[in-house]
Amino acid sequence: MASQMLSQSHQSTAAGELPGTWKLAAGRAITLQPREVGVLKVAHGRLWVTFDGPHQGPRNDLGDHILGAGAKVRLHAGQRVVAEAWNGGCPAYFSWDPLTAPSPNVPTRQAMVLQPLADLRRAAAMGVGAAARLAAGVARLALDAVTIPGWHGPSLPSTNSSATKSWT
Q1: 84 φ, ψ (degrees, to nearest 5)
Q2: Whether residue 22 is found in the same domain as residue 82
Q3: Where are the beta strands (DSSP E) in the chain?
Q4: What's the whole-number mean pLDDT along residues 52-78?
Q5: Of 33, 99, 119, 156, which has the fewest Cβ atoms less than 10 A away?
Q6: How far is CA 125 from CA 114, 119, 121, 129, in A?
Q7: 105, 67 in Cβ contact below 8 A?
Q8: Looking at residues 63-74, what average pLDDT do you find?
Q9: Is 162 part of a structural domain of the chain?
Q10: Which residue, among 94, 12, 11, 80, has the nearest Cα to 47 in the 3D structure?
Protein backbone atom coordinates (compact mmCIF):
# COMPACT_ATOMS: atom_id res chain seq x y z
CA MET A 1 0.00 0.00 0.00
CA ALA A 2 1.71 3.18 -1.18
CA SER A 3 1.33 6.29 0.92
CA GLN A 4 1.41 9.95 -0.08
CA MET A 5 0.87 13.21 1.77
CA LEU A 6 -2.16 15.34 0.88
CA SER A 7 -1.31 18.73 -0.58
CA GLN A 8 -2.86 21.28 -2.88
CA SER A 9 -0.85 19.87 -5.80
CA HIS A 10 -2.83 16.60 -5.62
CA GLN A 11 -6.18 18.32 -6.11
CA SER A 12 -8.06 17.09 -9.19
CA THR A 13 -8.20 19.38 -12.18
CA ALA A 14 -8.11 17.07 -15.22
CA ALA A 15 -11.15 16.66 -17.47
CA GLY A 16 -13.50 13.87 -16.40
CA GLU A 17 -12.55 14.19 -12.74
CA LEU A 18 -14.61 15.81 -10.02
CA PRO A 19 -13.61 19.46 -9.44
CA GLY A 20 -12.76 20.34 -5.86
CA THR A 21 -11.88 16.77 -4.95
CA TRP A 22 -8.78 14.65 -4.66
CA LYS A 23 -8.51 11.43 -6.64
CA LEU A 24 -7.23 8.36 -4.88
CA ALA A 25 -6.37 5.64 -7.39
CA ALA A 26 -7.04 1.97 -6.66
CA GLY A 27 -4.23 0.41 -4.64
CA ARG A 28 -3.05 3.80 -3.37
CA ALA A 29 -3.35 5.14 0.15
CA ILE A 30 -2.97 8.56 1.69
CA THR A 31 -2.25 9.62 5.25
CA LEU A 32 -4.15 12.64 6.51
CA GLN A 33 -3.18 14.53 9.65
CA PRO A 34 -5.02 17.86 9.54
CA ARG A 35 -3.84 20.95 11.40
CA GLU A 36 -7.44 22.02 12.02
CA VAL A 37 -10.83 20.42 12.56
CA GLY A 38 -12.55 19.51 9.31
CA VAL A 39 -14.70 17.07 7.36
CA LEU A 40 -13.55 14.33 4.98
CA LYS A 41 -16.35 13.61 2.48
CA VAL A 42 -16.47 10.87 -0.14
CA ALA A 43 -17.64 12.37 -3.43
CA HIS A 44 -17.46 9.22 -5.60
CA GLY A 45 -16.53 5.59 -5.00
CA ARG A 46 -15.71 4.12 -1.61
CA LEU A 47 -12.92 4.73 0.88
CA TRP A 48 -11.45 2.41 3.47
CA VAL A 49 -10.31 4.66 6.31
CA THR A 50 -8.29 3.61 9.34
CA PHE A 51 -8.06 5.88 12.38
CA ASP A 52 -5.11 5.75 14.76
CA GLY A 53 -6.03 4.49 18.22
CA PRO A 54 -6.85 4.24 20.97
CA HIS A 55 -10.29 3.08 19.86
CA GLN A 56 -13.49 2.94 21.86
CA GLY A 57 -16.29 0.45 21.37
CA PRO A 58 -16.27 -3.29 20.66
CA ARG A 59 -12.97 -5.16 20.54
CA ASN A 60 -13.32 -5.77 16.79
CA ASP A 61 -13.39 -2.01 16.16
CA LEU A 62 -9.80 -1.32 15.23
CA GLY A 63 -10.59 2.04 13.68
CA ASP A 64 -11.38 0.65 10.20
CA HIS A 65 -14.41 2.04 8.38
CA ILE A 66 -15.75 1.79 4.83
CA LEU A 67 -17.26 5.07 3.60
CA GLY A 68 -19.44 5.27 0.50
CA ALA A 69 -20.29 8.22 -1.72
CA GLY A 70 -21.83 11.03 0.33
CA ALA A 71 -20.46 9.74 3.64
CA LYS A 72 -18.71 12.25 5.88
CA VAL A 73 -16.36 11.88 8.79
CA ARG A 74 -15.15 14.61 11.11
CA LEU A 75 -11.41 14.77 11.76
CA HIS A 76 -9.85 16.62 14.69
CA ALA A 77 -6.67 18.67 14.52
CA GLY A 78 -3.68 16.32 14.77
CA GLN A 79 -5.79 13.17 14.34
CA ARG A 80 -4.19 10.70 11.92
CA VAL A 81 -6.19 8.67 9.40
CA VAL A 82 -5.11 6.52 6.47
CA ALA A 83 -7.50 6.35 3.49
CA GLU A 84 -7.44 3.87 0.60
CA ALA A 85 -9.70 3.43 -2.43
CA TRP A 86 -11.97 0.45 -1.62
CA ASN A 87 -13.39 -0.49 -5.04
CA GLY A 88 -11.07 -2.94 -6.81
CA GLY A 89 -9.98 -1.10 -9.96
CA CYS A 90 -11.90 2.14 -9.47
CA PRO A 91 -10.53 5.33 -7.98
CA ALA A 92 -12.25 7.18 -5.16
CA TYR A 93 -12.77 10.93 -5.01
CA PHE A 94 -12.94 12.80 -1.74
CA SER A 95 -12.84 16.34 -0.41
CA TRP A 96 -11.38 17.85 2.73
CA ASP A 97 -13.05 20.95 4.09
CA PRO A 98 -12.02 22.71 7.29
CA LEU A 99 -14.92 23.54 9.57
CA THR A 100 -15.73 27.21 9.76
CA ALA A 101 -14.86 29.20 12.84
CA PRO A 102 -17.62 29.76 15.36
CA SER A 103 -20.00 32.58 14.57
CA PRO A 104 -18.78 35.94 15.88
CA ASN A 105 -22.15 36.37 17.60
CA VAL A 106 -21.53 33.31 19.76
CA PRO A 107 -18.33 33.96 21.73
CA THR A 108 -16.20 30.97 22.61
CA ARG A 109 -14.90 30.56 26.14
CA GLN A 110 -11.43 31.64 25.05
CA ALA A 111 -12.77 34.68 23.19
CA MET A 112 -14.68 35.68 26.33
CA VAL A 113 -11.27 36.06 28.02
CA LEU A 114 -8.98 37.06 25.15
CA GLN A 115 -11.07 39.97 23.84
CA PRO A 116 -11.28 41.82 27.17
CA LEU A 117 -7.57 41.14 27.68
CA ALA A 118 -6.78 42.75 24.32
CA ASP A 119 -9.04 45.69 25.24
CA LEU A 120 -7.20 46.13 28.55
CA ARG A 121 -3.82 46.08 26.78
CA ARG A 122 -4.95 48.80 24.39
CA ALA A 123 -6.40 50.82 27.28
CA ALA A 124 -3.16 50.45 29.28
CA ALA A 125 -1.09 51.63 26.30
CA MET A 126 -3.37 54.64 25.85
CA GLY A 127 -3.20 55.34 29.61
CA VAL A 128 0.61 55.27 29.59
CA GLY A 129 0.67 57.70 26.65
CA ALA A 130 -1.83 60.01 28.36
CA ALA A 131 0.16 59.91 31.63
CA ALA A 132 3.37 60.81 29.77
CA ARG A 133 1.65 63.76 28.04
CA LEU A 134 0.15 64.87 31.37
CA ALA A 135 3.56 64.73 33.09
CA ALA A 136 5.13 66.77 30.27
CA GLY A 137 2.33 69.37 30.53
CA VAL A 138 2.64 69.64 34.32
CA ALA A 139 6.42 69.96 34.03
CA ARG A 140 6.02 72.75 31.47
CA LEU A 141 3.52 74.57 33.73
CA ALA A 142 5.88 74.22 36.71
CA LEU A 143 8.79 75.52 34.64
CA ASP A 144 6.73 78.47 33.45
CA ALA A 145 5.65 79.23 37.06
CA VAL A 146 9.22 79.45 38.39
CA THR A 147 10.60 81.49 35.53
CA ILE A 148 11.53 85.06 36.55
CA PRO A 149 9.48 87.57 34.62
CA GLY A 150 11.63 89.53 32.20
CA TRP A 151 14.42 86.96 32.23
CA HIS A 152 15.44 86.06 28.68
CA GLY A 153 18.16 83.62 29.63
CA PRO A 154 21.90 84.10 29.48
CA SER A 155 23.30 86.10 26.61
CA LEU A 156 26.15 84.84 24.53
CA PRO A 157 29.56 86.11 25.59
CA SER A 158 30.96 88.79 23.35
CA THR A 159 34.51 88.66 22.14
CA ASN A 160 35.32 91.98 23.79
CA SER A 161 33.80 91.47 27.24
CA SER A 162 32.94 88.76 29.69
CA ALA A 163 29.51 87.12 29.70
CA THR A 164 26.74 89.26 31.10
CA LYS A 165 23.17 88.64 31.99
CA SER A 166 20.57 90.84 30.47
CA TRP A 167 17.71 92.20 32.58
CA THR A 168 14.81 94.18 31.28
Answers
A1: -140, 145
A2: yes
A3: 2-5, 22-24, 28-32, 38-44, 47-51, 64-67, 72-75, 81-85, 92-98
A4: 80
A5: 156
A6: 17, 10, 6, 6
A7: no
A8: 90
A9: no
A10: 94
d(CA 68, CA 61): 18
* Domain shared by 118 and 55, yes or no: no
DSSP 3-state helix, strand, coil percentages of the chain (rounded to 5)?
25, 30, 50
Q: Compute the distance between CA of residue 23 and CA of residue 95 in angstroms, rounded to an integer.
A: 9
Answer whether the bond into residue 154 is a cis peptide, omega within 30°. no
- The length of the chain in residues reads 168
Query: What pLDDT score does 15 carry?
Result: 40
Determine the structural domain holding residue 126 and report its residue range.
101-145
56 and 124 belong to one structural domain: no
DSSP state of 154: B
Q: Is the same domain home to 27 and 93? A: yes
Inform me whether the pLDDT recorded for 163 exceeds 70: no
Statement to judge: residues 35 and 115 lie in one domain? no
How much of the chain exceeds pLDDT 90, in percent? 26
Rounded distance, CA 64 to CA 111, Å?
A: 36
Q: What is the pLDDT of residues 75-134, one digit of tens each?
A: 888 889 999 998 878 899 999 888 876 555 556 777 778 888 888 888 898 899 999 999
Is residue 167 included in any domain, yes or no? no
- Report the CATH number at residue 66: 2.60.120.10
